[in-house]
């Protein structure tokens, strides 16, 4: 194990889910319905994300919400009326599903008065988080349940301290949609790199690598001061990337874990549709029927 002045030896135990953005890429659906509540088969996107946190042992979850977003919190409440009806009907399977949503985690909320950027959204979590490292899970993407990412990130951060990022290989022409990392090899393990620089949305010819920063971060509490010192950057927003770059410049260790599984990105219509199709196809209860309908539809045979 590497000894490191930043290492805490303790795993982060709280997660912050920024979900106060305007979701302009999914308008007009998101005028009144938060994109975090769009259903993937029969669960909202946000539930997959809270499940991902809970599966990694994180059960203190802070949702950063904003105008028109309070219904997100309701999803994790008890619904005694619905539960009573299901009990009357003897529908134990659905009853268990409904109850499970309120048992996954302790959900807290904080408001971001105006969507001033991801960095600003994370900044609103300062008093809830306190002095310990914490996880950030973006509210519109998640990873494969059987290829989790968070446990390895939490373990690495407890070992090295500082920042731990999730990185995914993207096609060269896609670099301008992501934060891109410059990296060195690391002795920490396979698929772990040392991050030496971060650039927000570079053109392909300027990108230092094809490793994009995915929507999972483990951050030290010192990020809050860095966010306070961050001026609005790209798009006039207070960027988390800029605050992380400050810590990097101050000598805080930044590591990345390269994720080899599939990342479901539900923040825009195409990624959302792909997510629904992939997860519906994998379901035990309806996957078989859905796949055979889909194959027929794609071959041009199926009717609506
Ligand atoms: P996005 O970049 O996806 O922004 O933010 P967005 O506003 O949700 O969507 P578009 O780009 O307009 O379509 C990444 C995550 O950060 C949250 C979003 O809710 C999303 O989960 N976020 C972003 C905030 O909570 N507050 C902000 O000010 C910006």
UniProtKB/TrEMBL annotation:
Catalytic activity: alpha-D-glucose 1-phosphate + UTP + H(+) = UDP-alpha-D-glucose + diphosphate
GO MF annotation: an example: nucleotidyltransferase activity
Residue ranges of domain Nucleotidyl transferase in the record: 14-275
Family matches, as SUPFAM superfamilies: Nucleotide-diphospho-sugar transferases
Entry's EC annotation: 2.7.7.9
Entry keyword Lyase: no
Cross-referenced Pfam families: NTP_transferase
Keywords: Nucleotidyltransferase, Transferase
Domain of life: Bacteria
PANTHER family in UniProt: UTP--GLUCOSE-1-PHOSPHATE URIDYLYLTRANSFERASE
Similarity comment: Belongs to the UDPGP type 2 family.
Protein name: UTP--glucose-1-phosphate uridylyltransferase
């Amino acid at each position: 194990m590497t000894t490191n002045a930043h290492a805490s030896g303790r795993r982060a135990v709280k997660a912050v889910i920024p979900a106060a953005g305007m979701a302009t890429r999914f308008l007009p659906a998101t005028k009144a319905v938060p994109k975090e509540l769009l259903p993937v088969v029969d669960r909202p996107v946000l539930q997959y994300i809270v499940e991902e946190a809970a599966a990694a042992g994180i059960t203190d979850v802070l949702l950063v919400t904003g105008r028109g977003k309070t219904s997100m919190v309701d999803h994790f409440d008890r619904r005694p009326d619905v539960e009573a009806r299901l009990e009357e009907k003897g529908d134990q399977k659905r009853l268990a599903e409904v109850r499970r949503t309120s048992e996954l985690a302790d959900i807290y909320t904080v408001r971001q008065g105006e969507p001033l950027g991801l960095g600003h959204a994370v900044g609103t979590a300062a008093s809830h988080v306190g002095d310990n490292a914490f996880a950030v899970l973006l509210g519109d993407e998640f990873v494969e349940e059987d290829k989790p990412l968070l446990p390895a990130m939490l373990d690495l951060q407890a070992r090295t301290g500082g920042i731990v990022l999730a990185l995914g290989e993207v096609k060269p022409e896609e670099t301008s949609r992501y934060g891109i990392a410059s990296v060195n090899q690391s002795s920490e393990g396979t698929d772990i790199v040392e991050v030496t620089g971060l650039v927000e949305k570079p053109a392909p010819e300027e990108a230092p690598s094809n490793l994009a920063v995915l929507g999972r971060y483990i951050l030290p509490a010192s990020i809050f001061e860095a966010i306070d010192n961050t001026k609005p950057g790209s798009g006039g927003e207070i960027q988390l990337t800029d605050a992380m770059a400050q810590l990097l410049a101050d000598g805080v260790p930044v590591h990345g874990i390269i994720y080899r599984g599939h990342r479901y990105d539900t923040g825009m219509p195409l990624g959302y549709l792909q997510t629904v199709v992939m997860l519906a196809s994998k379901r035990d209860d309806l996957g078989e029927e859905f796949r055979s309908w889909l194959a027929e539809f794609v071959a041009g045979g199926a009717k609506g």
